[in-house]
Amino acid sequence: MKKLINDPADVVSEALLGIAAAHPDLGVDHQNKIVYRADAPVRGKVGLISGGGSGHEPLHGGFVGPGMLDAACAGEVFTSPVPDQVVAATRLADGGAGVLHIVKNYTGDVMNFEMAAELVTADTGVEVASVVVDDDVAVQDSLYTAGRRGVGTTVLLEKITGAAADEGRDLAAVADVARRVNAAGRSMGMALTSCTVPAAGQPTFDLPEGEMEIGIGIHGEPGRRRVPLAPAREVAEMLVEPVLSDLDFTGGDGALVFLNGMGGTPMLELYLMYNEVAKILQKAGVTVVRSLVGPYITSLEMAGCSVTVLKLDDELLRLWDAPVSTPGLRWGR
Amino acid sequence: MKKLINDPADVVSEALLGIAAAHPDLGVDHQNKIVYRADAPVRGKVGLISGGGSGHEPLHGGFVGPGMLDAACAGEVFTSPVPDQVVAATRLADGGAGVLHIVKNYTGDVMNFEMAAELVTADTGVEVASVVVDDDVAVQDSLYTAGRRGVGTTVLLEKITGAAADEGRDLAAVADVARRVNAAGRSMGMALTSCTVPAAGQPTFDLPEGEMEIGIGIHGEPGRRRVPLAPAREVAEMLVEPVLSDLDFTGGDGALVFLNGMGGTPMLELYLMYNEVAKILQKAGVTVVRSLVGPYITSLEMAGCSVTVLKLDDELLRLWDAPVSTPGLRWGR
Amino acid sequence: MSAVPTEGAVDVAALRRWIDAFAGDVAEHQEELTRLDSAIGDADHGSNLARGMKAVLAALDSERPATAGALLKRTGMTLVSTVGGASGPLYGTFFLRMGTAAGEVESLDTAALGAALRAGVGGIVARGKSELGDKTMYDALAPAVDAYDAAGDEVGAALRAASDAADRGRDATIPLQARKGRASYLGERSVGHQDPGATSAALLLGAAARTLG
Amino acid sequence: MSAVPTEGAVDVAALRRWIDAFAGDVAEHQEELTRLDSAIGDADHGSNLARGMKAVLAALDSERPATAGALLKRTGMTLVSTVGGASGPLYGTFFLRMGTAAGEVESLDTAALGAALRAGVGGIVARGKSELGDKTMYDALAPAVDAYDAAGDEVGAALRAASDAADRGRDATIPLQARKGRASYLGERSVGHQDPGATSAALLLGAAARTLG
Ligand SMILES: Nc1ncnc2c1ncn2[C@@H]1O[C@H](COP(=O)(O)OP(=O)(O)O)[C@@H](O)[C@H]1O
Ligand SMILES: Nc1ncnc2c1ncn2[C@@H]1O[C@H](COP(=O)(O)OP(=O)(O)O)[C@@H](O)[C@H]1O
Ligand SMILES: [Mg+2]
Ligand SMILES: [Mg+2]
Ligand SMILES: [Mg+2]
Ligand SMILES: [Mg+2]
């Protein structure tokens, strides 16, 4: 294992020290492993929190700031945070208008956030709503799965919902925007390499030269199928086709296209992939009105990418364009 | 070789298609492989151009936009652009106030930019000034080297000099700011892995488990020495010590600290490393007033990082804080 | 309300020995659990449980709960607060419910221990909505409590039966296609791999048979 | 001003055969050149030169220059415009200066060819400020032009002497510590490796000996 770390057990807490040092606009509760807006809670604004295992940076801590999240809980690498963290983050984020929990659909995340919401409601009276992101078309929502995973759409949802909260909407309305984003977003990912969980010390799976995994999530797990390595244009087809067959673009809505890097794939390749994706979407008659290219929801140092397509209406577009100021996404201020 | 590409020969031109598709604010001259501000030239403003081999993204194309570069030339992977490209970029960027060439100190870059400047001056009458960035303390400037390499400081210089040009200064004054930044910045880098040049098809060098390279540049070349893998805190010492012993901080100036990822190292590790670097600087009595953490000047998918320390005075700080709007760095608008 | 110790009953000290033994087994098998989780999950089950059980030992050392209920609930709360992931809430709920069922007593007889175990497993089902054959820890735990109840009055024999059944349940996860948790994302590719949670659950019952019998 | 063809002289067609042969040698040795550049550089010398020589062949095919000067200058300009890196300006300048020295003639005799080669090498020194022993292409080219001049009037013999000297100069780069170009960043670690540019320069002289002699 080759990593820039000290003791594998300290990776998350030491990275949080670095986040605190690098971003004076953010506060870090090192005890509870929470990154929060230094000016939290914002009076009268619905608080937005999220969290999950670490190893997906900049998600979620890098999306804390004006226009996006109020606080984020960092679990151990690829391990959902514990309820205590979520409770503490909820308290930090509550400005009197309630708190929205943005939860990626993984058994662990869902259960830990659920327990936290039970505790918050019982102990503090803070109003909590939850939205579960499940946008990964690699996984069918059926009796045979834990439902679709929450992947790329999470980033877009945190941004757009953050803008809705900034407009002063109430908790139900903010949660509604979040659910609309989730309903309008679909993703599909692939890996060229595995990644190494620091505590495990070796790659999660073995992926020989000449092969790749299609339909991966963001936890370094193997994907739905292993296929021979293919040129970028074919990889793009494998990702975009299932996304588009699951989203109805006949209404003439525009799309936000998000080409995400899994952590170990450089921008040169991501832009090249984005070109392939854009060509396929154009052929399919999808009008791309906004795009995002880069490593925003990652799987440690895994090489690979995912494609997220979000159907935009005028409101979602306006909320996407609204100012945001976080380490990971920043514009308009 | 596992990469998201089609034909290795087309990597750069296809990535430029992706940049054009993803960034409507940027123009791309595909013939000359130039990324430019769609609104270039800006009348009356000194034009800023840079360029170099590809594979360092977001450098340089990702730093084109208001407040930073006017145009950037993309060479083949790790290969300096040719004079024709530089000439074309100079023309695109000239708003009547002359053009500054920002050149990283590599034999190839220097010679190609030099030939371009000769051609521009002979053919067009556009006034050109050049600044050569040479901030890498791994390489001593001596009879036995081609001088120090240009690495991390390039990013900071492009940002700060861009702000100076935005203020309407003339070419000599803008070039002077650039030279001051170069004089005040020092960098040192390391690698955990090699990277693979697409056209070469295999890793540039072999770096076994348990070893790392100290004193690398940004072209996937081996470093100054190979040493056993060490914990992050020791790696930080190996990078910061030579930087600080080359910069005089007795005047009480603040520092901008830039912890750069080489492409394959995830943010989790970069923040952890930043924490180590910040601790060492604090112990050394250096006041960090600004920081930048992330992959901004990369070496394809190489795992590793570099540390750049820039001594700031009030003016450089103000110019760093000025608004910038590029794919790679954006704030204030 | 403190219980009168019964012959052959499981007292607080024995329960503590169980927790100690489970913590030891988890530490010993940490790499194996993570390796199993690498094949069909995200390579953290071993480190998750090891971290949690280390915290449990520390909590029990500092608090020294005096009743079965207090000891089991402290174990559960510590797991909930330190493990995370899927197994944190699940094992946490197991011990919390088991502790609630056990009550503030100094020892448990065979029937009370069986009822407490069954309550704990019920907590896992309530949290995880797992069904038999989903390829989860429940596939080891469900047959274990059934075997315990079927084995009669002698606590040692009952726990050995439970442990054997848990081992068989664990082995029986190998051919299954997962329908819960991360492994379900793999679809048919989950077939042929032993479930990590069922493996740690079998360790839990094995430790019980060694220490409570 | 068109020259009278001399017996044993090198005409435009022969120069074109030289360029063709060099392009072929570069294509054939592309991987080797890149491998050498991997050890002490950035793994692109082979693809750089291969790309450039492919473009040169295309340019010469479409333009069919009628004089030695035009052919060599077109070669140089194409290399400058397509190679990039250090070798682009260096080889580009070599051919540009060689073409200027050759002039608008249809053939070169032994002395004129030697003078043109020397002018080309002078261009490399002017651009790259290289000195003997810096571990660059100059270490193959400098002894080559000296050997050419020392070899007498017969162009074939002169080129064979030059080619042999270039090969020796190339081999002599192995023990050197680089003082120019990327390899210099490696310090002592550059010792023991053959310089990629000296290797391609030896190919250039080898192709000349085969085609112009
Ligand atoms: N819904 C569920 N019900 C019961 N057990 C489950 C459920 N989901 C997952 N598990 C168990 O959890 C184990 C994985 O635990 P762990 O790796 O610690 O958490 P995570 O899956 O969040 O990484 C699985 O092997 C399985 O036995
Ligand atoms: N200053 C110089 N003078 C002469 N030759 C040089 C000089 N610098 C580099 N070279 C030659 O260029 C070769 C490398 O060419 P190439 O790999 O194509 O360019 P780059 O070094 O820019 O990647 C070296 O092997 C060396 O022979
Ligand atoms: Mg996990
Ligand atoms: Mg190069
Ligand atoms: Mg797991
Ligand atoms: Mg090279």
TrEMBL record, chains A, B:
Any Pfam family hit: Dak1
UniProt keywords, alphabetically: Kinase, Transferase
Keyword Kinase: yes
Highest taxon in the source lineage: Bacteria
GO MF annotation, one: phosphoenolpyruvate-glycerone phosphotransferase activity
EC number: 2.7.1.121
Domain (DhaK) ranges: 7-331
NCBIfam families from the UniProt entry: dhaK1 (TIGR02363)
Name this polypeptide is given: Dihydroxyacetone kinase subunit DhaK
Gene from which the chain derives: dhaK
